[in-house]
Design brief:
- This is Cytosolic arginine sensor for mTORC1 subunit 1.
- By secondary structure, the chain is an alpha+beta fold.
- Helix content is about 25%, strand content about 20%.
- The protein is built from six helices and twelve strands.
- Strands 6, 7, 8, 9, 10, 11 and 12 form a seven-stranded antiparallel beta sheet that branches.
- Helix 1 packs across helix 2 and helix 5 crosses helix 6.
């Protein structure tokens, strides 16, 4: 319903949302959360089959967006490891490979993925949620932060922002559950009794992926970050955007994360 505008870009593809629900079969001692929890079982296999994904971690869970045209490949790739269901009329209906056999594409020959540069600003971030019934109490503040306080100049070049103080604010409302990522300074502007975080109140640091807008045709970008973090059992929230990808890792682990990703860069050259 949005009117056409010279200021609005729309990607060509239509995307479908996958949510991965645990059935309790993770190996003992598997502590990592976020994208690293599904790196080996979902992210890596899809990258190997040349499926481009957009990743959206929230306070409650993680979602993977895949292009509608890639759904047959996705189901054939994951069916051996997962029980797959589709939503029809509010009900979950089992999906089999036979349901999507028409149009299934065999994987292309493996290609070396592009290793994109990673940068880590000094900004510290919080991952929060808000009870839906308290949302009106912070609506004015949300509107100010989203549209006014940190709005970059219209003529600013992509990627021109000072990475020492990157502006990043993410708000998602999915099936009634609210998830917010904001920097620690912005959090101080909100009523502390309405913002809910984990009991540890941990702060997160960001790794931004991409020296220029990434586009949607390339595969393996999420895997480039998720696989080494999963191997080191490091939790990470991952948020793909129109231009860049962003991984949030615990503040105390940022030095190890940067070292791991630099090693990955060097070994891929």
């Amino acid at each position: 319903e949005l009117p056409p505008s010279e200021f609005m870009q729309v990607a060509d593809s239509t995307w479908l949302v996958l949510s991965v629900v645990s059935n309790g079969r993770e190996p003992p001692g598997c502590q990592a959360t976020g994208v690293t929890k599904i790196a080996r079982s979902v992210i890596a296999p899809l990258a190997e089959h040349h499926v481009s994904v957009l990743m959206l971690s929230t306070y409650q869970t993680d979602f993977i967006l895949v292009r509608e045209g890639d759904l047959p490949v996705v189901i054939h790739t994951l069916a051996g490891e997962f029980d797959i269901y589709k939503e029809e009329g509010g009900e979950c209906v089992p999906v089999t490979c036979d349901d999507v056999s028409n149009g299934f594409l065999k994987p292309k020959p493996p290609a070396s993925p592009t290793l994109h540069p990673v940068q880590s600003p000094q900004t510290r971030f919080c991952v929060l949620t808000v009870a839906p019934d308290t949302l009106p109490a912070i609506a004015t503040m949300l509107i100010d932060v989203l549209f006014y306080s940190h709005s970059p100049p219209w003529d600013a070049a992509p990627g021109s922002q000072d990475l020492d103080s990157i502006t990043f604010f993410s708000f998602s409302l999915i099936e009634g559950y609210i998830s917010i990522v904001m920097d620690a300074e912005t959090q101080k502007r909100f009523p502390s009794d309405l913002l809910l975080t984990s009991s540890t109140g941990e702060l997160w640091r960001m790794v931004r992926i991409g020296g220029q807008p990434l586009g949607f045709d390339e595969c393996g970008i999420v895997a480039q970050i998720a696989e080494p973090l999963a191997a080191a059992d490091i939790s990470a929230y991952y948020i793909s955007t129109f231009n860049f990808d962003h991984a949030l890792v615990p503040e105390e682990g940022i030095a190890e994360v940067i070292q791991l990703l630099q090693q990955r860069q060097e070994s891929g050259r």
